[in-house]
Queue: 2 jobs
Job 1
Amino acid sequence: MRLFEENHVYQSWMRPKAREGAIVQGSCYRFTVLTSQLIRMEYAEDGVFEDRATQVAWNREFDVPQFRVIEDETELQIITEHVHLYYTKGPFAPNTLYVDVKGNFSTYYSRYMFNGPERTLKGTARTLDHVDGATELEEGILSKQGYAIIDDSSSFLMTDDRFVEPRRKGIHDIYYFGYGHDYKQALRDFYTLTGPTPMLPRKALGNWWSRYWRYDEKEYKALMRRFKSEDVPFSVSVIDMDWHVTDIPEEYGSGWTGYSWNKNLFPEPKRFLNWLKDEGMMVTLNLHPADGVRAFEDQYVAMAEAMGVEPESGDRIPFDFSDKRFIQAYFEQMHHPHEADGVDFWWIDWQQGSTSKMEGLDPLWMLNHYHAIDIARDGKRPLIFSRYAGPGSHRYPVGFSGDTIISWASLAFQPYFTATATNIGYGWWSHDIGGHHRGKKDDELAARWVAYGVFSPIMRLHSTFSTFNGKEPWRFGIEAEQSMKRFLRLRHELIPYLYTMNYRNHANALPLVLPMYIEHPDDEAAYQVPNQFYFGSELIVSPIVTPMDRKLHVAGTNVWLPKGEWFDFFTGHRYEGDKSIRVFRGLDEQPVFAKAGAIVPLMPHKPHENETGNPSELEVLVFPGASNTFTMYEDDGESRDYETGASLETTFTLDWEARTLRIEMSGDLTLVPANRTLTVLVRGVVGEGDYDAETQTLHIPIGELKQEQTVTLPVDVTQNAHRLDRLYRFLDRAEIAYDLKDRLYQMATTKTRLEAWLFDLHALELDRDLQDALLELMLD
């Protein structure tokens, strides 16, 4: 495909011209009422306005909403169902342009004034490089005050020849979002304006192995074989910069940039890549493209000829993404040959800052945009691995958050950072799980980070170039090792659920990870748990990000549970919602809560396999307490055929009162492996038969899955009948006085009134962690 001559994967998303009925225009101003809550506001002294797509805004072809215009020679008002715009004609200024959001959701600051302060719930940041803990975030489109803006005045224009050109200076082009607390609608309209997030390949949702290390083919294969023998699955192989030649003659500069395999390490690259494919893995290679193409590269002659450079000169071909000819040759000569050998996508690591020959053009955005377009040729899905480059970057998954410092502070910031990125639509962050560099070895920190990583968008282990800094589980103590392995296996078990949320992100503008306030915008408690998040439609996660109490062997975190019943995802322990509590977990546990009636499809773990495709054996984990419907989505996991309907939906309808689970399949049934079997797991219940008391789970084998069937669930709610067993296990492990253990256990077993137990517990004047842990164990 000629990159600038044919339609590309994003072309159909670009409908930049708004409908005439949405436009209110004067000699120097233009307002476009895209929705009753989204208004484009433009000012240009010469009255020339822009109808082409920009780096941010690709589609303005919204249905025209109802609105009124009040206008005279000097003033203009636009009134919709949700907002009221006031404009005194002339240059935009704080005293000439402001917009009010209707509705009684915010006592203060619900008026936007041009160039006024932004008070959003924040968005995300370009990178976490050199950050130890928190960093400042850019603005998002969600706000407790009810409004936000995107200033698109300086973003580049998309031209008819599929390239870019700079905006004229001195103009204003601003998108006003006046959505109040309707955060979900704000996200939907933002995705409509900018384009949706593409579907990720199914394998991308499994575990990624990455390490900055000078592997050779033999060592890398041995490592992958050991992972398999240790029963640790991976689906993506990330090979850092030493895949290519790095020891280069001094005359050429540094070895960070390179495109030629190091044949001393990988004598036959295609053979190596084919072996990884046979092991069930996708492959991405690291790029640092800043130094262009130099004469030692295998493809230098072809690149030089494409660029009109005399090959015999040996002159460096500079990196220049403002040059269409360079971009085309960059892909055709330097990347396509590797892709033909088996490279699936590229890790676009750091490049030449944020400037280019074309003033104002960010080379990072250009790399992301054209890499995604190029890799998606021939029906593939757009997939890159690169840093965030501003609003609209969600179209170019996956995000690389940079070289994370190994510290508890770094871990503590990542859940908030990841969830908050949803406020600018950026749902597929990949972090250096376990930390990249600096810091010190800490088994507990490593295990906790992996447990968080499994419940983050992309699960990628990574570490820097150090003999001692690696994330292989066996490098850590036995307890940490076992925890890491358990959670890495769980990630692959979750793939059917994750892939359904992948589709939800693409089709319904809801990323996998959501801040609590997106689901509960008018509950103040939802804003007070920055590290807690929804993980898809069924689960809430509040990861442990602080060291444990060494005497109790557990660590705590604050959790807010919304109204209703909630169940521990792993044990089935029941919690009554509409309250905040401290919960405690050991190193092999993570605070994950399933809503009443939750339905979570799983792939049962198969030892020593890396399988990630549509499973031949399916498990459906069901929680009691409420009726619910969940539709599992599947397609071929690789191509864009789903765009034309090549997909399968399996709908599970739980009628809790009737104790039945109805199953119906629709769509392309050829996507289901032959003779797929189903097992229903009902957790948080009591029942007879194949029952696991420790996890309060009844196993109901169904056999071959039919297109339509109804399953009876012979279960009842436990009311936490096993709380004394849990208390015993906790006290047995705690390093506290035996007399105190006996007294605490006796109190729990003999007190018949809850109030009496609470008063006695308070009178003991226990350490805070011990008291709170006991309260969690004994109270619903």
Note: The mean pLDDT is 95.
Job 2
Amino acid sequence: MSAQYRSRRRLGALVVTSTLVFAGTAVAIVAAPADAASSTVVITEVYGGGGNTGAPYTNDFIELTNNSSSPVDLTGWSVQYASAAGTTWAVTQLTGSLAPGAAYLVQEGAGAGNGQPMPTPDATGNIAMSASSGKVALVSATTALACGATCSTAAGVVDFVGYGTANDFETTAAPGLSNTTSATRKVPTTDADNNGTEFAAVNPSPKTLTSTPPDPNPIDAKIHDIQGSAHLSPLNGKLVGNVTGVVTAKSGNGFWFQDPQPDADPATSEGLFVFTSSAPTVNVGDAVTVKGTVAEFRPGGSGGTDNLTTTELTNPTITVTGTAVVPAPTIVGPGGRVPPSTVIDDDSNGDVETTGTFEPATDGIDFWESLEGMWLGIDQPQVTGPTSSFRELSVVPAGSSVRTVRGGIVLQKADSNPERVLLDDVLTPIPDAKTGDKLAGVVSGVLDYSFGNFKFLPTQTPTVVAGGVTRETTKASSPLQVSVATFNVENLDPSDGAAKFDGLAQAVVRNLASPDIIGLEEVQDNDGATNSGTTAANVTLDTLAAAIVKAGGPEYAWRQIDPVNNAEGGEPGGNIRVAFLYRTDKPVKFVDRPGGGSTVATTIVTDRFGRPHLSSSPGRVDPANPAWAAARVPLAGEFTWHGQSLFVVVNHFSSKGGDDPLWGRTQPPVQVTAAKRHQQAESVRGFVDQLLAKDTGANVIVLGDINDFDFSETTDILVGSGKTALIDLPRTLPLPERYSYVFEGNSQILDQILISQNLKPASSYDIVHMNAEFPDQISDHDPQVARVVPLPSWVR
């Protein structure tokens, strides 16, 4: 199996496995099976495409069947695999007794995680089998075979299958396979020792000892009967027939069709996907009748356990009965089906698929589920986030809830914006667009689900109507103010090239008005992701400082501490860290004190006047605390401004990677990463408390990529309480201005600046929206600038 990466719906299969009928005449005819009967165990199915792009199952597998009239003890037996021309055999040992007529499933290696989880296997190995050609042997011993092209007749070989271009087989080779087809014995109870005539390339169908044969009598059903008023079909696993509808859209491995005569229940979808595994031969507008097995497909396979399933028909027989008018799209938004405005789900505590409640009128996750597979339209959808690198574009219907001042939609503690949906490029290209744009006319498509989100799949590329949003600039600070910024420079290292450094430099000079102090996040070492043992970042920072001068800005000096190699997360080898830049032409001065190091904690000391200072500057905050394991340790720096001390702590807390998605099957979503950020906030807050304990009037700024919201417990911990509480500047902004990051169309706070109370009266604050809303980003975060006046501690 070849490694695969993020894939779309199961595209690109090579072998047609459905039966297509026109006016009652079948196009595909299966050859007659052989007659010879085996008296023992035979190989009945071989599949090597598990987990690859388009794979229906996460793993490769080999299936056996006992053709004898007595149980067979498989203990001491094995299944073995070699490549098409290989002489080295990989072995999986078998155990247990196989009853007459029963199936035995051997699960083998996984690919990239695509497909549905396997049924419970009877034996497990980790052999990575070829999806197209190879050799499989059932052997009555566990010693690896030692033969070349003659293993099919070797001693101890009970049965043998060579497929594709294999150089060994029984009489002739079984067909070549793909990610979506297995070599399946046409009649499990016969074995004439001829792989070519006895095996067909069809949809994989792994069975186990407890498997039951499918119902041979299909149930007559409508699409809404199959979809049901729930997340899982009430007919899951059943064979259904006479399912009628009109083809509305098609992809590389199937098509969607819809019943033009819907029922009266808005909770039941009238659209359904038919999985044909290869390019379907039907056309949009065909009237079809389909027979097939109802299945719940979970995108992402074993790696997508948080994903909802999509209902589909598999192993279909399709009859084209004529042509028909494609139904008018069901409008989502004003004048049509209006999605809930605040709630994704409020009645589950675990798996939403089994909760027993389904409320499309109030729960967003149920609303979109009730439209799964349907032909939909959104009139002039409004863009709330930029087109992503995955060619996804977040939109909302008109009239949605709290919008940003620039056309986004604000994420709030009690409002995750369930009216959002992502346009995806499965069926047509998605254009570049930015927050605040609109799409012209009624955008039509079908509703799907993948990667933790409902996906709206247009069939024609939408036209973008520009909204006029431009990149912001901030004002320069006054002579009395020191300007302090936070800027995530997104894995910056010299290999990014001049364009990245020049873009960041232009941002510093033109958009941020050359702040006096900049806290940088995501600075990488001098050779970036090359895992060479290098931890120094002097070339990275020198290059950025030089680019700023080239862009017409002032000279900046920098301070940072190299981390322990590969100990603080980020790209392996990149040695990500935080750092300071500060201007050398202004009254801001960095107070250098020696003694700092990657594992050395800076502490608070006092001079003979009782004034606090850092024991080492720059210095790392609490590096031995387990909160910082595999995370970026904060950096504290002591500055002066016109002789007044200013203490700045730059941070980059642990990310949200690993949390449940907002639209996942687990509701409410579990934020498994939050606990570590709480610990990190407690560590930083403890450091600030030590500083303020020495001088409650100390000038303190805590800033950086906190990776958590302004309304989060992480922020509450950093703020603290009482006279030493910090002021979280994002919380001081009106709600429509409170964002520094856009994720899946939700405008939200991740980056923050917090200041001590004595700095507030003379401060001003600006989130400079120049990145997060645009598809052509120099970074995915918007920088922020606070302008403050450090005062003596007695002036409060």
Note: Residues 674-694 form the longest helix (21 residues).
